[in-house]
Design goal:
932 residues, alpha+beta, Jelly Rolls, Leucine-rich repeat, LRR (right-handed beta-alpha superhelix), 5 domains, 11-stranded mixed sheet, 6-stranded mixed sheet, 20 helices, binds 2-acetamido-2-deoxy-beta-D-glucopyranose
């Protein structure tokens, strides 16, 4: 059964999505005349004839090989405009966007085209053609900011802008995710396949994501020079396990260079550097080493000593030969000239190896024009008008502004002027114009606009408004008189009617520099003085009546409030059993509770009655059994008994209870009251109908299977409860025993954290064993266990375990499931570090979740269970990550949520693990084989 279903799942997921991947590819042959399937790759290409109305198709003389794509290019006019292609994207998915340029026509040097390439408002590259027959490739890795992106060409300094191909390839999972992706795109500088068999680059179908892996035999100037002697090329036909984070193609990993004389050195130029970069090295041992052979090496960078220490032992780091190991620097500053060398360590028998590497530059994402402004401009563009001005595409302001608008130089840019005089625009003036708040000039004169003048009272910066020579009807709105900076208002030759607002006429008389033109509106009148007074008189009368009315209403409200509060007081005293007056608790409870709003004392007899003689046990708390009960007023309760109650101070207990009951948060189980008798202490909590999270995840009888989104909501709730304990309470409270059985679910399946704050009390009670860390096996923070330093980060560790349980549906400790590692932490960590999140997903969730969303949680969970507490995130950051995952799962996320940016920044590089593993070698200065 298991086998069959597994096969079925694999079959279902794998086959269609590989096909799916390809159909998700966008491949545009610019200047091409027909659609076709590329013979070598089998990929469908479409001609841009129907999507690009601008520019012209040009036949290329010097065709490159046989590829159809390069037989034509599209040339655009050399003018002040930009020319754009709009590509559809899935918001927040990561893509490779690639444009290529083959000019193909020989011209005299210095007159080859040189122009700018933009991705939305972000400057992508300066395209500088220097050889007619070379294909220039520009590649950007982005996380799509919205449903579409614009690739624009403009601003030629020589020649005219042109383009040969435009491609977009979606990426999977967390490939190419960085901490900075909210603010930066990744511009690929180099992606090199070492030991390549030919000069040909490797790409689709060898790389299912169609990345281009340049051959190291490529003969570009200054490309991979300064090669150390003894460098040899090796290859294998064995399969390589590449399932980590970035999935380089097996074919790339099957070749490598090795430094047989102990070192590998290279030098190359990085376009547009110096800059901050993301750098990946891809290693796999592809030689069969002898039993006594080792391959260990270090990177040697004289100018960057920080980067020179880590020792790479490929087979060991990768956990075996023929397996990928991909250490990375997620943010490294590199110069234009990159020289690097790998040198073998003294105790290594073999020289260094390198299979591939990839370097991308961080390019800051530039702000697009304010979205409200853009949609207002679009409202104008989509009005009926058969003119060229509506065809301009891309961002209205960047890199060049649309001809009919003027923009501010702020970030983001705002529209300051709209100039559509005599453009044959028909219809009504769009309402949306009121959103263009930065507008100072609006010229809509000489069109066929009809309808009334819309509300533009928010355009407080407006200086010049031209609406003359249209067919506008209706009154002249009075707000026009209140626009503080208005200097010119022209409305001649329309069909406006009614009266000219007095404020406008007055403004004219005030000798302000104000011009009003209103001739040619037969029904528009100037106001007469007497009418003016009448209007004023009426309005005073109305005001007086209004005033009286309001007074009356206010008075009535007050008296009502009074009676209702009296009624409430009464109600309270009736329900003495749930909320007694303080006098009551003082009398019975020993006078320790002074604050009326805190939990109150409930006599044992009441509890015995409520729980029917403690007959229904619903669980086991940290200190004793928990019973179900129902108070006289029908309120359902959970009574937590504390069995081992020592003779320790009653006062202490009561103080503790008082403290706890002041803590109110929707994600914390509320404490209702307490009971203390000679040998019994009890805490009374609100009853949570859906029991513990533990039962829902691990109890196989439980039919209420939690789907992933439900788990995420629960995680978010619980995290918020913990965050409140850590940051919302003074003094802050460390839970100390975070686990799935302390996360309770209410009737709506929202989670509340229970059992918090008892810690201090417990410690007092257990002074004789205070050296034993409190907590539950499997959830216990190892650092706390080791040195008894309790911080909020101990709760974070435990919460990380809870997250792993939510993902995997597995128990925190089990020798059956995890073998000798026995803990979910070790098991999950090793799989996640290998990039294999699929293997840890709860089988009952399979097929219904977005893996990307699981990744977000997996990543943050692994950070939570970091060995050192300082490496763990705060609850705040965890909440953001969970919210991020929820957005991804629901697929309704908006990109500008500032939350996600912080959540993203919690992502961790593999570098940490890379250094962690090797640091023992370095600390004592000697190079002994690392103990692993
Ligand atoms: C090419 O394919 C695109 C997209 O499928 C389609 O819109 C267009 O009409 C096709 N063009 C030709 C010339 O067949
Ligand atoms: C693989 O390496 C062998 C030498 O070990 C060489 O003869 C062969 O040409 C190489 N193959 C490729 C595809 O590079
Ligand atoms: C992309 O991810 C899906 C699962 O979400 C997987 O089935 C597919 O094989 C992946 N595509 C590639 C090219 O790896
Ligand atoms: C990389 O590090 C530098 C210096 O530490 C920092 O200024 C920069 O913001 C970081 N991130 C990126 C994407 O450049
Ligand atoms: C490996 O080293 C051990 C001890 O150094 C030696 O006894 C053994 O012969 C070596 N094996 C090979 C295959 O070289
Ligand atoms: C404005 O003119 C358009 C035709 O150009 C017409 O469809 C529309 O009904 C007119 N609106 C008003 C309010 O007259």
């Amino acid at each position: 059964m298991g086998l069959v279903s597994q096969f079925f799942v694999t079959f279902l997921c794998l086959i269609p999505s590989i096909l799916g991947q390809v159909t998700e590819f966008t491949s545009i042959d610019c200047g091409g005349t027909s659609n076709y399937t590329d013979k070598t790759t089998g990929l469908p290409w479409i001609s841009d004839a129907e999507i690009q109305g601008q520019g012209k198709s040009v036949q290329v003389e010097n065709t490159y090989g046989n590829s159809v794509q390069y037989q034509t290019r599209r040339d655009f006019p050399t003018d002040g405009k930009k020319y754009c292609y709009k590509l559809t994207s899935e918001e927040r998915r990561r893509y490779i966007v690639r444009s290529t340029f083959l000019y193909g026509t020989s011209v005299t040097e210095g007159t080859y085209p040189k122009f700018q390439l933009y991705l939305d408002a972000t400057k992508w590259s300066t395209v500088t053609i220097m050889e007619a027959s070379r294909i220039y490739v520009k590649e950007m890795i982005i996380r799509a900011p919205s449903r579409s992106i614009d690739v624009c060409l403009c601003c030629a300094s020589t020649g005219s802008p042109f383009i040969s191909t435009l491609e977009m390839r979606p990426l999977n999972l967390s490939m190419y995710a960085t901490d900075y992706e909210d603010e930066f795109y990744l511009k690929v500088a180099e992606r090199v396949n070492f030991g390549a068999p030919t000069q040909q680059a490797i790409r689709y179908p060898d790389d299912p994501y169609d990345r281009i892996w340049e051959s190291d035999l490529d003969r570009r100037p200054n490309f991979l020079v300064g090669v150390a002697s003894g460098t040899e090329r090796i290859n294998t036909t064995k399969n390589i396990d590449v399932n980590t984070r970035e999935y380089p193609p097996v074919k790339v990993m099957q070749t490598a260079v090795v430094g047989t004389k102990g070192s590998l050195t290279y030098r190359l130029n990085l376009e547009d550097f110096p800059a901050n970069a993301r750098a990946y090295a891809y290693f796999a041992e592809i030689e069969d080493l002898g039993v006594n052979d080792t391959r260990k090496f270090k990177m040697e960078q004289p100018y960057m000593p920080d980067y020179s220490n880590a020792v790479v032992n490929v087979a060991e780091n990768a956990n075996g030969s023929y397996t990928l190991y991909e250490p990375s620097y997620m943010n490294i500053t590199l110069d234009f000239v990159l020289s690097f060398s790998f040198v073998k360590t003294r105790d290594s028998t073999r020289g260094p190896i390198l299979n591939a590497m990839e370097i991308s530059k961080y390019v800051e994402i530039a702000a697009k024009t304010d979205a409200k402004d853009v949609s207002s401009l679009n409202a104008l563009r989509y009005m009926p008008a058969q003119s060229e001005w509506t065809e301009e595409d891309g961002d209205p302001c960047i890199p060049t502004n649309w001809e009919w608008v003027t923009c501010s130089s702020t970030a983001p840019p705002r529209i300051t002027k709209i100039l559509l005089s005599g453009k044959n625009v028909k219809g009504e003036i769009p309402q949306e114009l009121k959103n263009v708040e930065g507008l100072t000039e609006l010229w809509l004169d000489g069109n066929s606009l009809n309808g009334t003048i819309p509300d533009m009272s928010d355009l407080v910066n407006l200086k010049i408004l031209h609406l003359e020579n249209n067919r506008l009807t209706g009154p002249l709105p009075s707000y026009l008189g209140n626009l503080p900076y208005l200097q010119e208002l022209y409305i001649q030759n329309n069909s406006l009617s009614g009266e000219i607002p007095p404020s406008l006429l007055k403004r004219k008389l005030d000798f302000q520099p104000f011009h009003l033109g209103y001739d040619g509106n037969p029904h528009l009148r100037r106001v007469t003085k007497s009418r003016n007074k009448l209007v004023l008189g009426t309005s005073t009368g109305v005001l007086a009546i209004l005033f009286l009315l309001i007074l009356f209403i206010l008075l009535r409200r007050r008296s009502k409030a009074k009676t209702s509060s009296e009624r409430n007081e009464k109600a309270n005293s009736w329900r003495a059993s749930t909320r007694p007056l303080s006098a009551y608790s003082i009398a019975r409870g020993g006078g320790s509770l002074m604050d009326e709003s805190v939990a109150y004392y409930i006599p044992l007899s009441d509890l015995e009655e409520a729980t029917n003689g403690f007959s229904k046990q619903i669980g086991k708390g940290s200190f004793g059994p928990v019973y179900y009960g129902k108070m006289k007023d029908g309120k359902e309760i959970a009574v937590k008994t504390m069995a081992d109650s020592s003779s320790h101070g009653t006062k202490q207990f009561v103080t503790e209870v008082a403290l706890l009951s002041r803590i109110h948060h929707r994600n914390l189980v509320p404490l209702i009251g307490y009971c203390e008798e000679v040998h019994q202490r009890m805490l009374v909590y609100e009853y949570m109908h859906n029991g513990t999270l533990r039962d829902h995840i691990h109890d196989s009888d439980n039919q209420n299977h939690l789907d992933w989104l439900a788990r995420l909501w629960i995680a978010e709730d619980a995290a918020k409860g913990l965050e409140y304990l850590h940051t919302g309470c003074n003094p802050s409270i460390i839970h100390r025993d975070v686990k799935t059985s302390n996360i309770l679910l209410d009737i709506n399946m929202r989670a509340k954290v229970s059992d918090f704050g008892l810690s201090r009390q417990a410690e007092e009670d257990l002074t004789h064993v205070s050296s034993v860390a409190r907590g539950t096996v499997g959830y216990l923070d190892p650092e706390y266990y080791a040195n008894q330093q309790l911080t909020e980060k101990s709760d974070v560790y435990s919460f990380g375990v809870v997250l792993l349980e939510l993902i995997s549906g597995r128990k925190p400790v089990s020798t059956e499931e995890y073998g000798s590692d026995w803990s979910i932490v070790h098991w999950a960590r090793s799989l996640i570090r290998k990039g294999d999140v699929i293997s840890i997903i709860d089988p009952t969730l399979m097929g219904t979740v977005k893996v990307e969303s699981i990744w977000r949680i997996a990543e943050v969970a692994i950070q939570c269970v970091e060995q050192h507490s300082f490496s763990r995130p705060r609850m705040q950051e965890i909440i953001l990550a969970i919210q991020d995952a929820i957005k991804i799962e629901k697929g309704t996320d908006k990109i500008d949520s500032s939350g996600s940016s912080k959540a993203q920044s919690s992502r961790k590089t593999l570098l940490t693990s890379f250094l962690d593993i090797q640091s023992p070698d370095l600390s004592n200065g000697s190079l002994v084989p690392s103990a692993r």
